[in-house]
Amino acid sequence: MHGETMSGWLLVALCAATGAYCLLRMSSGAGDHRTGAGSEALMGFGMATMALPAAAVAPPVWGWAPYAAVFGAAALRALGQSRGSAHHLHHVIGSAAMVYMALVMAPNAGGAAHTGHATGYGAGGIPLLTGALLLYYAGYVLRSGVRLMPEAVVAAGPDSGAAVGWGARPELALACRLSMGIGMIAMLVTL
Question: Rounded distance, CA 92 to CA 48, Å?
Fold first, then answer.
């Protein structure tokens, strides 16, 4: 019992910190970089609020509707931007997964009451869709983890000592994406 609440709060902290870093990234970029960072900040903060343990903060009965609306709009926006961009397509899948989880969490979804949220999310969902999303995010996490592995060091040039701002560090952005992918797996497993 205590472990589930603790893991819920750890997931909330991880997702909120990721969302905050994505806001920092948003202020240090322009154009497509800024749009992507904004989408990731929305995802991080949305995941943090959705992962709040119900023992501490009981969600209102109507609480699923704003999640579905916000992430439905985010999915449509990302779909419009996804032409030729795998990263925007990932945002479409992530936003659609959040809509799916919000609908599954809704009272009367699949006949399951929302009371199961105290120990995670209520049982429900479409097993095949949940499994497909779990497989997608498992592959995404593995791919992101491999991309974080250090590459061979190239001979240092005169610009190697240049300071890079916290918002412009690609390895931190990738680490945030990795942690949100792990968070999505944790949330999907509880369906």
Answer: 19
**For residue range 123-174, what is the model confidence (pLDDT) as tens digits?**
578 999 999 999 999 999 999 999 888 775 444 444 555 555 655 667 888 8
Number of domains in the chain: 1
Q: Are 67 and 42 in contact (CB under 8 A)?
A: no
Per the structure, the complete domain to which residue 145 belongs is given by 2-189
The beta-carbon contacts of 5-13 under 8 Å, at least 24 apart in sequence, are: 5/53, 5/55, 5/56, 7/186, 8/51, 8/52, 8/53, 9/53, 9/56, 11/47, 11/48, 11/51, 11/183, 11/186, 11/187, 12/48, 12/51, 12/52, 12/53, 13/48
